[in-house]
Design goal:
- The chain is α/β, with parallel strands linked by helices.
- It has nine helices and 16 strands.
- Strands 1, 4, 7, 8, 10, 13, 14 and 15 form an eight-stranded mixed beta sheet that branches.
- A hairpin with a 2-residue loop joins strand 2 and strand 3 (31-32).
- The longest helix is centred in the last third of the chain and has 13 residues, at 237-249.
């Protein structure tokens, strides 16, 4: 089962961070958010990743090129350049890093991976800036059971502000950030069939969330897996601070110890 992560956007709403590095490399605790997302998939046994890169892709390539050295102790013989690793902590992940263009949009990035994915059957896809404690095995089972071309995980994020209910000018109820008052939104964590590539008709300019998903809806080929648990994207500094607070509290429910 191959997993696509869209990692090429410019992250302009988080420009305080993304001016110097791509958003997937912004850290939650000790790891960039892309590592958190991959860890979530790996915890369910999905360990072959395709990262669709674009903006400042060299940061992501450097990170994965050197992750083995970063995770292990080693000695270097400067006379020969030979490196001997000590504790040899190993991960059985396979990470494919693919340049999908600096200005390519989300659907176009997926289309750039067509040759890698067209003959592999069902695959997964998500964004490089959001974490959730969604059960990915259940999402896959749901997708296989309905037999359609696409599944999207639907989430209800907490409201940004509290809600007041009035009778005239009198407040009769005050709800602090009620989740249920917010509608279901696209939480990422897709499961897709290769036929979805037929819906990416505008090349690099295809916005996956517009025409492709709209046409999949028209054709009755898009289903939603409703996730009522934790979900949080990292669009702003406020989001980054919140995710780091959760991580530091030891309550990061999206993290799998793999």
């Amino acid at each position: 089962m191959k997993v696509v992560l869209l990692c090429g956007g410019k992250g302009t709403r988080l420009s305080e961070e993304t001016g110097v590095r791509p958003k997937p490399m912004v850290e939650i605790g000790d790891y960039p958010i892309i590592w958190h997302i991959m860890n979530s998939y790996a915890g369910y046994g999905f360990k072959e990743f395709y990262l669709a890169l674009g903006y400042k892709q060299e940061y992501i390539k450097e990170y994965f090129a050197n992750v083995y050295a970063r995770e292990n102790d080693f000695s270097v013989d400067l006379a020969t350049g030979k490196i001997d690793f000590r504790n040899q902590k190993k991960l059985d992940w396979k990470v494919n890093l693919v340049d999908s263009g600096a200005e390519t949009l989300t659907g176009g990035r997926l289309l750039r991976l067509k040759d890698h994915l067209k003959d592999t059957g069902t695959f997964m896809m998500t964004y490089g800036d959001g974490v959730a404690d969604v059960n990915l095995e259940e999402v896959l089972r749901f997708h296989k059971a309905h037999g359609k071309l696409a599944t999207v995980t639907a989430v209800r994020p907490p409201a940004r502000f509290g809600e007041m209910i009035f009778e005239g000018d009198k407040i009769v109820e005050f709800k602090e950030k009620p989740r249920t008052s917010v509608g279901w939104i696209n939480g990422g964590f897709f499961v897709l069939e290769p036929e979805v590539f037929d819906y990416l008709e505008e090349g690099d300019d295809t916005i996956f969330e517009k025409s492709p998903l709209e046409k999949l809806v028209e054709d009755g080929q898009l289903m939603s897996f409703k996730h009522d648990g934790f979900w949080q994207c990292m669009d702003t500094l406020r989001d980054k601070k919140l995710l780091n607070e959760i991580w530091n509290s030891g309550e990061a429910t999206w993290w799998n110890n793999v």
